[in-house]
Design goal:
By secondary structure, the protein is mainly α. The protein is about 55% helix and about 0% strand. The chain has a domain of about 70 residues: Orthogonal Bundle (Helicase, Ruva Protein, domain 3). The chain starts with 10 loop residues before the first helix and ends with a helix.
């Protein structure tokens, strides 16, 4: 769903990683959420409202990656794009926007939700 760029660890962070992996000590993990809670959150997230204008906004963003020449301010980018975003991009952009709105405590998507996660999707 998302492409995240993760920086290299610092010297000290890598030392800790090495210590954990070279001489592993059994770690006791404590669940933060149960599978039932996660499933419930997912159901609520899918119910977050996204108005048609925002669906069109998502579609225009994706279409602009496929056909930048159709968008006057983006036509210069056409030679820089080999492949546009797939239909999964529009689906995942909408889903991630809904999830972002949910995490922000709203039952509806606003343009800032799309902008907040757009680059990662």
């Amino acid at each position: 769903m998302m492409k995240l760029l993760i920086r290299y660890p610092s010297f000290e962070e890598e030392r800790q990683i090495m210590a954990m992996m070279v001489d592993p000590v059994e770690q006791k993990l404590q669940a933060v959420l149960s599978p039932v809670q996660i499933s419930g959150m997912r159901e609520v997230m899918h119910k977050v409202f996204m108005e048609d204008k925002l669906t069109d906004y998502v579609l225009h963003l994706v279409m602009a990656t496929r056909h930048p020449e159709r968008y006057p301010r983006l036509s210069a980018l056409a030679p820089l794009i080999s492949y546009g975003a797939s239909p999964r991009a529009s689906i995942n952009l909408a889903r991630a926007a809904k999830a972002h709105a949910y995490m922000e405590g709203r039952g509806y998507v606003i343009p800032d939700d799309i902008k907040a996660i757009g680059a990662d999707v």
